[in-house]
Amino acid sequence: MDNYDNMELLRFTTAGSVDDGKSTLIGRLLYDSKSIFEDQYDAVRESSERRGEEGVNLALLTDGLKAEREQGITIDVAYRYFSTPKRKFIIADTPGHIQYTRNMVTGASTANVALILIDARRGVLEQTRRHAFIASLLQIPHLVVCINKMDLVDYSEETYEKIKQDFEEFSYKLNVNDVHFIPISALKGDNVVTKSENTPWYDGSTLLYYLENVHIGSDHNFIDCRFPVQYVVRPNSDDYHDYRGYAGRIAGGIFKKGDDVMLLPSGFTSKIKKIDTFDGEVDEAYPPMSVTLLLEDDLDLSRGDMIVRENNQPEVEQDLEIMVCWFADRPLQPRGKYAVLHTTKEVRCIVKEIRYKLDINTLHRNEEDKTIGMNDIARVVIRTTKPLYYDAYRKNRITGSVIFVDEGTNETVGAGMII
Amino acid sequence: MSYHLNHLKELESESIFIMREVAAQFERPVLMFSGGKDSILMVHLARKAFYPANIPFPLLHVDTGHNFPETIEYRDKLVEETGARLIVGSVQEAIDSGAIVEEKGYNASRNYLQTHVLLEELEKGKFDAALGGARRDEEKARAKERFFSHRDEFGQWDPKNQRPELWNLFNGKKNYGEHFRIFPISNWTELDVWMYLAMEGVELPSLYFAHERPVFAREGTLLADCEYIHKRPEEEAAVETRMVRCRTIGDMTCTGVWESEAKTIEDIIKEVSIARKTERGGRTDDKRSETAMEDRKKQGYF
Question: Where is the Tr-type G domain (chain A) (predicted)?
Answer without folding.
Answer: 7-220
